[in-house]
Amino acid sequence: MKVTQLLLLVALVAFAPAAVFAMQDQPPLETNAGTTFFQDAGSIGIVIIVLSVVALTMIIKEVMAIRRDQLAPPELIDEIEALFEAGEYQEAIELCETESCYFTNIVASGLPKLNASFDAMEKALEEMIEEETIKLHARLSWLSLIAGVAPMLGLMGTVNGMIGAFEVIAASKGQATPDKLAGDISQALITTLLGLVVAVPVTAAFVFLRNRVVSYSLEVAAVVEDLFERFRPRAS
Q: Which of 33, 49, 84, 197 yields a CA-CA distance of 20 to 30 A from 154?
């Protein structure tokens, strides 16, 4: 089910701007400047389209990075556990430093506390789990930013287009014909549509990836807790 959701999100972000073009079944209205769709969208519309490309790139990158076997590779978990069983903690530290990832960064924070109290070790692990998770959320926050900015840019284009339309009306002293207003009104509608078309799938992708981070961070935290449980003092 997760794979299906992922493919749907990527497809939405990838083809959302293209869908706008597909909706243009009729040839563009002929205006004095012979404008095309891109010209109607204006510079603000182009910025929104560029944002959609940036968002798609980020989504693909984060989907590949935020995976269970990337955050905590099973082979690394097995190696660390084997070193723990053998009591080779220095080798475990060196392995964590060599194979840096979400899981090994957390383990490496607890191992130097072996000679301290278990509470100190547990606190170090909790702090590193929080720090590593915040880093993942911080990367995803850029998607949230794009999802928020895109419709605002669309609104800006709408206002800009309507201002242009009213300026045409004012210049013609109320005698402006529809063909003279078409360009500005088209820009107003196109930028609004582009902003929404980008914002909706990017918001969905952000929520999907954020939930992934929460789920996987809890799973890795449980694995780390099991590894370090052997150091907990036994009640006499």
A: 33
- Which residues contact residue 212 at a Cβ distance below 8 angstroms, ignoring those fewer than 6 apart? 66
Q: Which tokens belong to 4?
A: 């299906």
Residue 109: strand, helix, or coil: helix
CA distance 102 to 107: 9
CA dihedral 149, 152, 153, 154 (to 10 degrees): 130
- What's residue 127's pLDDT? 94
Q: Are 185 and 126 in contact (CB under 8 A)?
A: no
Question: Which amino acid does the sequence have at 86?
Answer: A
Nearest of 10, 8, 28 to residue 190 by alpha carbon: 28
Q: What is the mean pLDDT of residues 219-226?
A: 94
Each residue's pLDDT tens digit, 192-215: 889 999 999 999 999 999 999 999
* Domain residue spans of the chain: 2-16+43-156+193-230
* Residue 78 clears pLDDT 90, i.e. is over it: yes
Residue type, 170: A
Per-residue model confidence as pLDDT tens digits over 82-124: 999 998 999 999 999 999 999 999 999 999 988 888 899 999 9
Q: How far is it, in rounded angstroms, from Cα 179 to Cα 172?
A: 13
Please name the residue that has the structure tokens 């563009």: 28
Q: Of 66, 106, 104, 59, which is closest to residue 212 (Cα–Cα)?
A: 66
Instruction: Find the angle CA(64)-CA(103)-CA(6) to the nearest 5 degrees.
Output: 25
